[in-house]
Protein backbone atom coordinates (compact mmCIF):
# COMPACT_ATOMS: atom_id res chain seq x y z
CA UNK A 1 0.00 0.00 0.00
CA UNK A 2 1.49 3.34 -1.11
CA UNK A 3 1.25 6.26 1.31
CA UNK A 4 0.31 9.44 -0.53
CA UNK A 5 0.70 13.09 0.46
CA UNK A 6 0.12 16.50 -1.09
CA UNK A 7 3.16 17.78 -3.04
CA UNK A 8 5.21 20.18 -0.88
CA UNK A 9 6.10 23.46 -2.66
CA UNK A 10 9.66 23.43 -1.27
CA UNK A 11 10.33 19.95 -2.70
CA UNK A 12 8.82 20.97 -6.05
CA UNK A 13 11.11 23.99 -6.18
CA UNK A 14 14.11 21.75 -5.58
CA UNK A 15 13.17 19.74 -8.67
CA UNK A 16 12.74 22.81 -10.84
CA UNK A 17 16.32 23.77 -11.67
CA UNK A 18 16.20 25.47 -15.05
CA UNK A 19 19.53 25.94 -16.78
CA UNK A 20 20.30 29.39 -18.13
CA UNK A 21 19.61 29.18 -21.86
CA UNK A 22 22.73 29.36 -24.07
CA UNK A 23 22.27 32.39 -26.28
CA UNK A 24 25.29 31.76 -28.53
CA UNK A 25 23.75 29.56 -31.26
CA UNK A 26 27.10 28.16 -32.42
CA UNK A 27 28.08 27.16 -28.90
CA UNK A 28 24.64 25.64 -28.31
CA UNK A 29 24.95 23.64 -31.51
CA UNK A 30 28.45 22.43 -30.72
CA UNK A 31 27.78 21.62 -27.06
CA UNK A 32 24.94 19.35 -28.22
CA UNK A 33 27.44 17.28 -30.20
CA UNK A 34 28.68 14.47 -27.97
CA UNK A 35 30.56 12.45 -30.59
CA UNK A 36 32.48 13.08 -33.80
CA UNK A 37 29.55 11.50 -35.66
CA UNK A 38 27.30 14.19 -34.12
CA UNK A 39 29.67 16.84 -35.49
CA UNK A 40 29.51 15.11 -38.88
CA UNK A 41 25.71 15.46 -38.87
CA UNK A 42 25.93 19.19 -38.16
CA UNK A 43 28.65 19.54 -40.79
CA UNK A 44 26.47 17.88 -43.40
CA UNK A 45 23.57 20.21 -42.65
CA UNK A 46 25.69 23.33 -42.91
CA UNK A 47 28.00 22.63 -45.84
CA UNK A 48 27.16 22.55 -49.55
CA UNK A 49 26.95 18.99 -50.86
CA UNK A 50 30.01 19.15 -53.13
CA UNK A 51 32.25 20.45 -50.34
CA UNK A 52 30.90 18.00 -47.77
CA UNK A 53 31.26 15.07 -50.17
CA UNK A 54 34.82 16.07 -51.07
CA UNK A 55 35.66 15.77 -47.37
CA UNK A 56 33.50 12.86 -46.33
CA UNK A 57 34.05 10.75 -49.44
CA UNK A 58 36.78 8.29 -50.33
CA UNK A 59 37.90 6.45 -53.47
CA UNK A 60 35.91 4.06 -55.67
CA UNK A 61 33.45 2.05 -53.51
CA UNK A 62 34.83 3.67 -50.30
CA UNK A 63 35.58 0.21 -48.88
CA UNK A 64 38.96 1.12 -47.38
CA UNK A 65 37.42 3.80 -45.20
CA UNK A 66 34.46 1.68 -44.13
CA UNK A 67 36.77 -1.22 -43.26
CA UNK A 68 39.14 1.02 -41.31
CA UNK A 69 36.27 2.36 -39.21
CA UNK A 70 34.91 -1.13 -38.73
CA UNK A 71 38.31 -2.37 -37.55
CA UNK A 72 38.24 0.24 -34.78
CA UNK A 73 34.70 -0.79 -33.86
CA UNK A 74 35.96 -4.37 -33.67
CA UNK A 75 38.30 -3.59 -30.79
CA UNK A 76 37.83 -5.44 -27.54
CA UNK A 77 39.38 -3.75 -24.51
CA UNK A 78 40.68 -5.61 -21.47
CA UNK A 79 40.53 -3.49 -18.30
CA UNK A 80 42.40 -4.14 -15.07
CA UNK A 81 40.32 -3.63 -11.93
CA UNK A 82 41.15 -2.05 -8.59
CA UNK A 83 43.86 0.08 -10.17
CA UNK A 84 43.53 3.69 -9.03
CA UNK A 85 43.37 5.98 -12.08
CA UNK A 86 41.89 9.14 -10.65
CA UNK A 87 44.05 11.36 -12.78
CA UNK A 88 45.33 10.40 -16.19
CA UNK A 89 48.23 11.98 -17.99
CA UNK A 90 47.59 12.10 -21.76
CA UNK A 91 50.86 13.77 -22.65
CA UNK A 92 53.52 12.11 -24.75
CA UNK A 93 56.78 12.73 -26.61
CA UNK A 94 56.75 12.57 -30.37
CA UNK A 95 59.54 13.26 -32.83
CA UNK A 96 61.67 15.10 -30.36
CA UNK A 97 58.96 17.29 -28.86
CA UNK A 98 55.98 17.23 -26.54
CA UNK A 99 52.33 16.71 -27.37
CA UNK A 100 49.59 17.16 -24.77
CA UNK A 101 47.70 14.20 -26.28
CA UNK A 102 48.65 11.23 -28.44
CA UNK A 103 47.18 12.67 -31.63
CA UNK A 104 47.76 15.53 -34.03
CA UNK A 105 45.98 17.07 -37.00
CA UNK A 106 46.64 15.39 -40.37
CA UNK A 107 47.37 17.38 -43.52
CA UNK A 108 44.30 18.10 -45.61
CA UNK A 109 44.14 19.88 -48.94
CA UNK A 110 41.77 22.69 -49.82
CA UNK A 111 40.67 23.14 -46.22
CA UNK A 112 39.07 26.58 -46.55
CA UNK A 113 36.54 24.98 -48.89
CA UNK A 114 35.00 23.19 -45.94
CA UNK A 115 34.72 26.34 -43.85
CA UNK A 116 36.34 29.65 -44.50
CA UNK A 117 38.50 29.69 -41.34
CA UNK A 118 40.31 26.60 -42.70
CA UNK A 119 43.87 25.97 -41.53
CA UNK A 120 43.90 29.04 -39.29
CA UNK A 121 41.17 27.40 -37.20
CA UNK A 122 43.00 24.04 -37.22
CA UNK A 123 46.41 25.45 -36.33
CA UNK A 124 44.98 27.77 -33.67
CA UNK A 125 42.97 24.98 -32.03
CA UNK A 126 45.94 22.58 -32.16
CA UNK A 127 48.22 25.20 -30.62
CA UNK A 128 45.74 25.93 -27.82
CA UNK A 129 45.40 22.21 -27.08
CA UNK A 130 49.17 21.59 -27.21
CA UNK A 131 49.09 19.13 -30.13
CA UNK A 132 50.84 19.37 -33.52
CA UNK A 133 49.17 20.71 -36.66
CA UNK A 134 50.14 19.60 -40.18
CA UNK A 135 49.82 21.91 -43.18
CA UNK A 136 49.30 20.22 -46.56
CA UNK A 137 51.19 21.14 -49.73
CA UNK A 138 47.67 21.62 -51.11
CA UNK A 139 46.63 23.85 -48.19
CA UNK A 140 44.67 27.05 -48.53
CA UNK A 141 46.67 29.04 -45.97
CA UNK A 142 50.31 29.94 -46.50
CA UNK A 143 53.15 28.46 -44.46
CA UNK A 144 53.65 31.84 -42.81
CA UNK A 145 49.90 32.19 -42.17
CA UNK A 146 49.87 28.90 -40.28
CA UNK A 147 52.91 29.97 -38.28
CA UNK A 148 51.08 33.17 -37.35
CA UNK A 149 48.00 31.19 -36.27
CA UNK A 150 50.09 28.81 -34.15
CA UNK A 151 53.18 30.83 -33.24
CA UNK A 152 54.24 28.89 -30.14
CA UNK A 153 52.95 25.41 -30.91
CA UNK A 154 54.33 22.68 -33.14
CA UNK A 155 53.70 22.95 -36.87
CA UNK A 156 54.48 20.13 -39.29
CA UNK A 157 54.56 20.36 -43.07
CA UNK A 158 53.33 17.70 -45.52
CA UNK A 159 55.23 17.49 -48.77
CA UNK A 160 54.19 16.12 -52.11
CA UNK A 161 57.14 15.65 -54.42
CA UNK A 162 55.87 17.08 -57.65
CA UNK A 163 56.92 16.78 -61.27
CA UNK A 164 58.58 20.15 -60.92
CA UNK A 165 60.95 19.23 -58.09
CA UNK A 166 61.99 22.84 -57.43
CA UNK A 167 58.45 23.68 -56.31
CA UNK A 168 58.57 20.96 -53.65
CA UNK A 169 62.10 21.80 -52.53
CA UNK A 170 61.20 25.50 -52.30
CA UNK A 171 58.20 24.75 -50.10
CA UNK A 172 60.27 22.53 -47.81
CA UNK A 173 62.86 25.29 -47.40
CA UNK A 174 60.16 27.85 -46.64
CA UNK A 175 58.54 25.59 -44.02
CA UNK A 176 61.91 24.99 -42.37
CA UNK A 177 62.59 28.72 -42.32
CA UNK A 178 59.21 29.29 -40.64
CA UNK A 179 60.17 26.88 -37.86
CA UNK A 180 58.11 23.84 -38.85
CA UNK A 181 59.83 20.97 -37.03
CA UNK A 182 58.68 17.86 -38.93
CA UNK A 183 58.17 17.00 -42.58
CA UNK A 184 55.66 14.36 -43.66
CA UNK A 185 56.63 13.01 -47.06
CA UNK A 186 53.42 11.55 -48.57
CA UNK A 187 54.08 8.57 -50.82
CA UNK A 188 50.66 7.04 -51.48
CA UNK A 189 49.64 9.42 -54.25
CA UNK A 190 51.44 8.48 -57.47
CA UNK A 191 48.13 9.25 -59.19
CA UNK A 192 44.83 10.54 -57.85
CA UNK A 193 42.37 8.04 -56.43
CA UNK A 194 38.96 7.90 -58.11
CA UNK A 195 36.78 10.13 -55.92
CA UNK A 196 33.50 9.25 -57.54
CA UNK A 197 31.40 11.60 -55.42
CA UNK A 198 33.42 14.53 -56.77
CA UNK A 199 32.85 13.38 -60.34
CA UNK A 200 29.12 12.93 -59.77
CA UNK A 201 28.87 16.35 -58.14
CA UNK A 202 30.85 17.97 -60.96
CA UNK A 203 33.17 19.30 -58.24
CA UNK A 204 36.06 21.38 -59.50
CA UNK A 205 38.70 23.72 -58.10
CA UNK A 206 37.88 26.57 -57.90
CA UNK A 207 34.23 25.65 -57.25
CA UNK A 208 31.88 26.57 -60.10
CA UNK A 209 28.43 28.04 -59.69
CA UNK A 210 25.92 25.86 -61.53
CA UNK A 211 22.15 25.66 -61.22
CA UNK A 212 22.62 22.65 -58.90
CA UNK A 213 25.07 24.43 -56.59
CA UNK A 214 22.80 27.46 -56.40
CA UNK A 215 19.78 25.35 -55.44
CA UNK A 216 21.92 23.49 -52.90
CA UNK A 217 23.04 26.85 -51.44
CA UNK A 218 19.57 27.98 -50.45
CA UNK A 219 19.45 26.20 -47.06
CA UNK A 220 23.15 26.96 -46.37
CA UNK A 221 23.36 30.75 -46.56
CA UNK A 222 26.17 31.12 -44.03
CA UNK A 223 28.63 29.00 -45.98
CA UNK A 224 27.97 31.08 -49.06
CA UNK A 225 28.17 34.33 -47.13
CA UNK A 226 31.61 33.26 -45.85
CA UNK A 227 32.67 32.04 -49.29
CA UNK A 228 31.72 35.24 -51.07
CA UNK A 229 32.94 37.74 -48.45
CA UNK A 230 36.36 36.32 -47.53
CA UNK A 231 39.61 36.10 -49.56
CA UNK A 232 39.47 33.99 -52.71
CA UNK A 233 39.53 30.25 -52.14
CA UNK A 234 42.72 28.95 -53.75
CA UNK A 235 45.82 26.90 -53.00
CA UNK A 236 48.10 29.05 -50.90
CA UNK A 237 51.38 27.53 -52.05
CA UNK A 238 50.59 26.61 -55.65
CA UNK A 239 48.90 28.42 -58.48
CA UNK A 240 46.66 26.40 -60.75
CA UNK A 241 44.47 27.01 -63.71
CA UNK A 242 41.72 24.78 -62.42
CA UNK A 243 40.26 21.40 -63.21
CA UNK A 244 38.87 18.54 -61.19
CA UNK A 245 40.76 17.54 -58.06
CA UNK A 246 41.95 14.40 -59.87
CA UNK A 247 43.26 16.41 -62.81
CA UNK A 248 45.10 18.78 -60.51
CA UNK A 249 46.67 15.93 -58.56
CA UNK A 250 47.65 14.04 -61.68
CA UNK A 251 49.19 17.17 -63.15
CA UNK A 252 51.17 17.95 -60.02
CA UNK A 253 52.26 14.55 -58.69
CA UNK A 254 55.12 12.55 -60.07
CA UNK A 255 54.36 8.82 -60.24
CA UNK A 256 58.10 8.06 -60.51
CA UNK A 257 59.16 9.23 -57.03
CA UNK A 258 61.58 6.84 -55.36
CA UNK A 259 64.08 6.36 -52.53
CA UNK A 260 66.36 8.81 -54.40
CA UNK A 261 63.82 11.55 -53.74
CA UNK A 262 63.72 10.62 -50.08
CA UNK A 263 67.51 11.02 -49.91
CA UNK A 264 67.37 14.47 -51.54
CA UNK A 265 64.60 15.66 -49.22
CA UNK A 266 66.54 14.44 -46.22
CA UNK A 267 69.42 16.64 -47.32
CA UNK A 268 67.17 19.67 -47.71
CA UNK A 269 65.10 19.24 -44.55
CA UNK A 270 66.87 20.10 -41.27
CA UNK A 271 64.20 18.67 -38.93
CA UNK A 272 62.52 15.31 -38.45
CA UNK A 273 61.26 13.48 -41.51
CA UNK A 274 58.53 10.86 -41.61
CA UNK A 275 57.09 8.93 -44.53
CA UNK A 276 53.28 8.99 -44.78
CA UNK A 277 51.27 6.33 -46.56
CA UNK A 278 53.26 3.19 -45.71
CA UNK A 279 51.13 0.06 -46.15
CA UNK A 280 53.15 -3.07 -45.56
CA UNK A 281 55.72 -4.60 -43.24
CA UNK A 282 58.57 -4.79 -45.75
CA UNK A 283 58.37 -1.08 -46.66
CA UNK A 284 58.13 -0.17 -42.97
CA UNK A 285 61.29 -2.09 -42.24
CA UNK A 286 63.16 -0.74 -45.23
CA UNK A 287 62.28 2.87 -44.35
CA UNK A 288 63.19 2.53 -40.68
CA UNK A 289 66.45 0.80 -41.66
CA UNK A 290 67.09 3.66 -44.10
CA UNK A 291 67.04 5.97 -41.07
CA UNK A 292 63.81 7.96 -41.45
CA UNK A 293 62.62 9.38 -38.14
CA UNK A 294 59.23 7.69 -38.40
CA UNK A 295 56.56 6.18 -40.61
CA UNK A 296 52.83 6.79 -40.83
CA UNK A 297 50.78 3.70 -41.57
CA UNK A 298 48.01 5.24 -43.65
CA UNK A 299 45.93 4.68 -46.74
CA UNK A 300 45.13 8.38 -47.02
CA UNK A 301 41.77 7.97 -45.32
CA UNK A 302 40.70 5.54 -48.06
CA UNK A 303 41.01 8.26 -50.70
CA UNK A 304 43.63 6.58 -52.87
CA UNK A 305 43.78 2.79 -53.41
CA UNK A 306 40.41 1.34 -52.45
CA UNK A 307 40.57 -2.03 -50.62
CA UNK A 308 44.07 -1.12 -49.40
CA UNK A 309 45.16 -2.77 -46.14
CA UNK A 310 43.63 -1.35 -42.96
CA UNK A 311 46.47 0.64 -41.32
CA UNK A 312 45.31 -0.17 -37.77
CA UNK A 313 45.42 -3.88 -38.62
CA UNK A 314 49.01 -3.57 -39.85
CA UNK A 315 50.17 -2.11 -36.56
CA UNK A 316 50.96 -5.22 -34.49
CA UNK A 317 53.07 -6.89 -37.18
CA UNK A 318 54.84 -3.70 -38.21
CA UNK A 319 55.72 -2.86 -34.60
CA UNK A 320 56.95 -6.41 -34.05
CA UNK A 321 59.22 -6.14 -37.11
CA UNK A 322 60.63 -2.64 -36.64
CA UNK A 323 60.72 -2.74 -32.82
CA UNK A 324 58.72 -0.87 -30.21
CA UNK A 325 61.27 1.95 -30.12
CA UNK A 326 60.74 2.96 -33.75
CA UNK A 327 58.31 5.82 -34.34
CA UNK A 328 55.31 4.17 -35.96
CA UNK A 329 52.23 6.34 -36.33
CA UNK A 330 48.83 5.51 -37.73
CA UNK A 331 45.81 7.21 -39.28
CA UNK A 332 42.65 6.44 -41.28
CA UNK A 333 39.25 5.90 -39.73
CA UNK A 334 39.78 7.49 -36.31
CA UNK A 335 36.41 8.79 -35.10
CA UNK A 336 36.67 8.21 -31.34
CA UNK A 337 39.27 8.70 -28.63
CA UNK A 338 39.04 4.98 -27.93
CA UNK A 339 40.42 4.35 -31.46
CA UNK A 340 43.46 6.39 -30.45
CA UNK A 341 43.87 4.49 -27.17
CA UNK A 342 43.68 1.15 -29.03
CA UNK A 343 46.32 2.30 -31.55
CA UNK A 344 48.72 3.40 -28.82
CA UNK A 345 48.19 0.15 -26.91
CA UNK A 346 49.15 -1.82 -30.02
CA UNK A 347 52.41 0.08 -30.34
CA UNK A 348 51.68 3.27 -32.29
CA UNK A 349 53.63 6.22 -30.91
CA UNK A 350 51.11 8.72 -32.25
CA UNK A 351 47.98 9.06 -34.36
CA UNK A 352 46.56 11.61 -36.80
CA UNK A 353 43.01 12.76 -37.40
CA UNK A 354 41.77 13.98 -40.79
CA UNK A 355 38.00 14.01 -41.14
CA UNK A 356 37.34 14.19 -37.39
CA UNK A 357 39.01 17.62 -37.50
CA UNK A 358 37.24 18.66 -40.68
CA UNK A 359 33.77 17.69 -39.39
CA UNK A 360 34.39 19.99 -36.42
CA UNK A 361 35.60 22.73 -38.75
CA UNK A 362 32.50 22.47 -40.94
CA UNK A 363 30.23 22.32 -37.89
CA UNK A 364 31.56 25.53 -36.34
CA UNK A 365 34.92 26.92 -37.54
CA UNK A 366 37.56 27.31 -34.83
CA UNK A 367 35.08 26.51 -32.04
CA UNK A 368 34.12 23.37 -33.93
CA UNK A 369 37.74 22.20 -34.07
CA UNK A 370 38.06 22.96 -30.35
CA UNK A 371 34.97 20.78 -29.85
CA UNK A 372 36.50 17.91 -31.88
CA UNK A 373 39.60 18.02 -29.71
CA UNK A 374 37.55 18.24 -26.49
CA UNK A 375 35.42 15.23 -27.48
CA UNK A 376 38.48 13.14 -28.33
CA UNK A 377 40.24 14.23 -25.15
CA UNK A 378 37.34 13.16 -22.93
CA UNK A 379 37.00 9.85 -24.79
CA UNK A 380 40.71 9.08 -24.41
CA UNK A 381 40.67 10.04 -20.75
CA UNK A 382 37.56 8.02 -19.94
CA UNK A 383 38.79 4.95 -21.84
CA UNK A 384 42.12 5.06 -20.01
CA UNK A 385 40.42 5.40 -16.62
CA UNK A 386 38.10 2.51 -17.40
CA UNK A 387 41.11 0.43 -18.44
CA UNK A 388 42.82 1.23 -15.14
CA UNK A 389 45.67 3.06 -16.85
CA UNK A 390 46.96 6.47 -15.84
CA UNK A 391 49.58 7.30 -18.47
CA UNK A 392 50.16 6.73 -22.18
CA UNK A 393 53.27 4.64 -21.40
CA UNK A 394 51.17 2.15 -19.43
CA UNK A 395 49.06 1.19 -22.46
CA UNK A 396 50.12 -2.23 -23.69
CA UNK A 397 49.08 -4.75 -26.37
CA UNK A 398 47.42 -6.87 -23.69
CA UNK A 399 44.76 -4.15 -23.29
CA UNK A 400 43.41 -4.75 -26.80
CA UNK A 401 42.21 -7.61 -28.97
CA UNK A 402 41.44 -6.95 -32.62
CA UNK A 403 38.31 -8.95 -33.44
CA UNK A 404 37.96 -9.91 -37.04
CA UNK A 405 34.80 -9.89 -39.14
CA UNK A 406 36.34 -10.25 -42.57
CA UNK A 407 37.12 -13.97 -42.53
CA UNK A 408 36.15 -16.49 -45.20
CA UNK A 409 32.66 -17.81 -44.63
CA UNK A 410 32.74 -21.43 -43.47
CA UNK A 411 30.60 -23.79 -45.56
CA UNK A 412 27.55 -25.27 -43.77
CA UNK A 413 28.34 -28.70 -42.29
CA UNK A 414 26.11 -30.79 -44.63
CA UNK A 415 27.23 -28.95 -47.75
CA UNK A 416 30.84 -29.15 -46.62
CA UNK A 417 30.59 -32.94 -46.25
CA UNK A 418 29.13 -33.23 -49.75
CA UNK A 419 31.77 -31.11 -51.39
CA UNK A 420 34.78 -32.08 -49.29
CA UNK A 421 35.91 -34.74 -51.69
CA UNK A 422 35.53 -32.67 -54.82
CA UNK A 423 36.87 -29.24 -53.74
CA UNK A 424 39.95 -28.09 -51.80
CA UNK A 425 38.94 -26.16 -48.64
CA UNK A 426 39.43 -22.39 -48.42
CA UNK A 427 42.26 -21.48 -46.04
CA UNK A 428 41.01 -20.26 -42.64
CA UNK A 429 42.04 -16.77 -41.58
CA UNK A 430 43.02 -16.22 -37.98
CA UNK A 431 42.45 -13.19 -35.82
CA UNK A 432 45.29 -10.73 -35.48
CA UNK A 433 46.72 -11.55 -38.43
CA UNK A 434 48.41 9.71 -65.41
CA UNK A 435 48.62 11.15 -67.37
CA UNK A 436 48.86 14.92 -66.80
CA UNK A 437 45.88 17.02 -67.76
CA UNK A 438 46.48 20.00 -69.95
CA UNK A 439 43.54 21.60 -68.13
CA UNK A 440 45.43 21.89 -64.88
CA UNK A 441 48.78 23.49 -64.18
CA UNK A 442 50.65 24.08 -60.98
CA UNK A 443 53.39 26.39 -59.85
CA UNK A 444 54.75 27.52 -56.50
CA UNK A 445 53.58 30.75 -54.95
CA UNK A 446 55.58 33.05 -52.75
CA UNK A 447 59.04 31.59 -53.41
CA UNK A 448 61.62 31.64 -56.15
CA UNK A 449 59.73 29.09 -58.23
CA UNK A 450 56.74 31.41 -58.36
CA UNK A 451 58.45 33.72 -60.75
CA UNK A 452 58.72 31.00 -63.38
CA UNK A 453 55.67 30.61 -65.59
CA UNK A 454 53.92 27.28 -65.06
CA UNK A 455 54.50 25.05 -68.03
CA UNK A 456 51.68 22.85 -69.24
CA UNK A 457 51.98 19.69 -67.19
CA UNK A 458 52.21 17.50 -70.27
CA UNK A 459 55.40 19.25 -71.35
CA UNK A 460 56.91 18.83 -67.90
CA UNK A 461 56.80 15.07 -67.94
CA UNK A 462 59.95 13.73 -66.31
CA UNK A 463 62.86 12.87 -68.51
C1 LIG B 1 39.58 16.30 -47.42
C2 LIG B 1 40.90 15.60 -47.23
C3 LIG B 1 42.04 16.10 -47.85
C4 LIG B 1 43.27 15.46 -47.67
N1 LIG B 1 44.40 16.02 -48.23
C5 LIG B 1 45.60 15.44 -47.99
C6 LIG B 1 46.79 16.06 -48.47
O1 LIG B 1 46.76 17.10 -49.09
N2 LIG B 1 47.97 15.42 -48.21
C7 LIG B 1 48.05 14.25 -47.51
O2 LIG B 1 49.14 13.73 -47.30
N3 LIG B 1 46.93 13.67 -47.02
C8 LIG B 1 45.72 14.23 -47.24
N4 LIG B 1 44.59 13.65 -46.72
C9 LIG B 1 44.70 12.44 -45.91
C10 LIG B 1 44.88 12.80 -44.44
O3 LIG B 1 46.13 13.38 -44.20
C11 LIG B 1 44.77 11.54 -43.54
O4 LIG B 1 45.70 10.58 -43.98
C12 LIG B 1 43.37 10.93 -43.54
O5 LIG B 1 42.39 11.95 -43.56
C13 LIG B 1 43.18 10.05 -42.32
O6 LIG B 1 41.93 9.43 -42.34
P1 LIG B 1 40.64 10.02 -41.55
O7 LIG B 1 40.10 11.14 -42.37
O8 LIG B 1 39.72 8.85 -41.51
O9 LIG B 1 41.11 10.48 -40.20
C14 LIG B 1 43.34 14.28 -46.89
C15 LIG B 1 42.19 13.79 -46.28
C16 LIG B 1 40.98 14.43 -46.43
C17 LIG B 1 39.76 13.88 -45.74
Give a brief rundown of this model.
The chain has 463 residues and is of the alpha/beta class.
Explain what the structure shows:
The protein has 463 residues and is α/β, with parallel strands linked by helices. The chain has a domain at 26-63 and 85-311 and 352-373: Aldolase class I (TIM Barrel, Alpha-Beta Barrel). It has helices spanning 9-15, 25-31, 36-46, 49-56, 63-73, 118-129, 143-149, 165-177, 196-201, 211-217, 221-229, 245-252, 259-268, 281-289, 311-322, 337-345, 355-387, 413-419; strands spanning 75-77, 92-94, 97-99, 103-105, 133-135, 155-159, 182-186, 238-240, 272-278, 294-297, 328-330, 350-353, 400-402, 442-444. A hairpin with a 2-residue loop joins strand 2 and strand 3. Helix 6 (118-129) packs parallel to helix 17. The termini are far apart. Mean pLDDT is 88; it is low at 423-440 and 447-463. The protein binds flavin mononucleotide. Flavin mononucleotide binds at residues 55, 106-109, 136, 138, 158, 186, 276, 298, 300-301, 303, 331-334, 353-356. Flavin mononucleotide (FMN) binds at residues 55, 106-109, 136, 138, 158, 186, 276, 298, 300-301, 303, 331-334, 353-356. It comes from Microbacterium jejuense. Belongs to the FMN-dependent alpha-hydroxy acid dehydrogenase family. Keywords: Flavoprotein, FMN, Oxidoreductase. Residues 418-437, 442-463 are annotated as: Disordered. This is Alpha-hydroxy-acid oxidizing protein.
Amino acid sequence: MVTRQLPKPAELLELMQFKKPELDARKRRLDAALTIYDLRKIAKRRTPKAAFDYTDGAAEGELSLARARQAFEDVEFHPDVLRPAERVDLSTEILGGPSAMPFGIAPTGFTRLMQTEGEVAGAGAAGAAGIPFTLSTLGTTSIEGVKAANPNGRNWFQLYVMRDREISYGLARRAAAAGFDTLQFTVDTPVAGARLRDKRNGFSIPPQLTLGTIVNAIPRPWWWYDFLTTPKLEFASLSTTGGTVGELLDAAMDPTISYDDLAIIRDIWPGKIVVKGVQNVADSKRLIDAGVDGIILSNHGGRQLDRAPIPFRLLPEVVREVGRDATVMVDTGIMNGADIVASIALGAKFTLIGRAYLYGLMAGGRQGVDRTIAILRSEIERTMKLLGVSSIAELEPRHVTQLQRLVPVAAPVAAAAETAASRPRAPRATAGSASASAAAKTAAKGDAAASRPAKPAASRAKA
